[in-house]
Amino acid sequence: SENSLQSLVSIGNICRSPIAEAVFRKLVTDEKLENKWRTDSAAVSDWNVGRFPDSRALSCLRNHGIETAHKARQITKEDFQTFDHILCMDESNLRDLNRKSNQVKDCKAKIELLGTYDPQKQLIIEDPYYGSEKDFETVYEQCLRCCKAFLEKYH
């Protein structure tokens, strides 16, 4: 079947979006669908380009048996033209992405909040950067619920 492409976006690409990307990648691998999906994550801003995810994000993922080698990057014009879905974490990401996409000819990506897929209806995935380990765990749980529901819908 047709390959589906998904990108997950947050402001700096070191906390929420790399967690979501790693979670989604593990789900598609567990379901033996990895040849059907191309998953990446990116930032709206250029603050952290080239940096590895926050150490608390990495240790949260490791606690759930997930590794990631992601390095932060900024979203590009090509992302809007090649990805089918661009899922973001909060309203300010959504506004920024919609604004950027309006400047792109032939934007094919459907831009949405990842939280719209949450069966528990938590629409916003809050940035845990200034929080505690527990906040990273909350982000992980939200990403897991949303990514599962998203995959069920589009698989």
UniProtKB/TrEMBL annotation:
> What are the top taxonomic ranks of the organism?
Eukaryota, Metazoa, Chordata, Craniata, Vertebrata
Please provide one cellular component term from the Gene Ontology annotations of this protein: cytoplasm
InterPro entries, per database record: LMW_PTPase, Ptyr_pPase, Ptyr_pPase_sf, Tyr_Pase_low_mol_wt_mml, Tyr_phospatase_low_mol_wt
SUPFAM superfamilies noted in UniProt: Phosphotyrosine protein phosphatases I
Which species expresses this protein natively?
Answer: Agelaius phoeniceus (Red-winged blackbird)
- Per its record, how is this protein called by name? Low molecular weight phosphotyrosine protein phosphatase
Keyword Disulfide bond in the entry? The reply is no
Q: Which Gene3D superfamilies match?
A: 3.40.50.2300
Which residue positions are annotated as catalytic? Answer: R16, D127
Please state every residue range assigned to the domain named Phosphotyrosine protein phosphatase I: 9-153
Q: What is its EC number?
A: 3.1.3.2, 3.1.3.48
**Compartment(s) where it occurs, according to its Swiss-Prot or TrEMBL record:** Cytoplasm
Q: What's a Gene Ontology MF term here?
A: acid phosphatase activity
Q: Which UniProt keywords apply?
A: Cytoplasm, Hydrolase, Protein phosphatase
- Catalytic reaction equation(s): a phosphate monoester + H2O = an alcohol + phosphate; O-phospho-L-tyrosyl-[protein] + H2O = L-tyrosyl-[protein] + phosphate
- What is this protein for, i.e. what is its function? Acts on tyrosine phosphorylated proteins, low-MW aryl phosphates and natural and synthetic acyl phosphates.
Family (UniProt): Belongs to the low molecular weight phosphotyrosine protein phosphatase family.
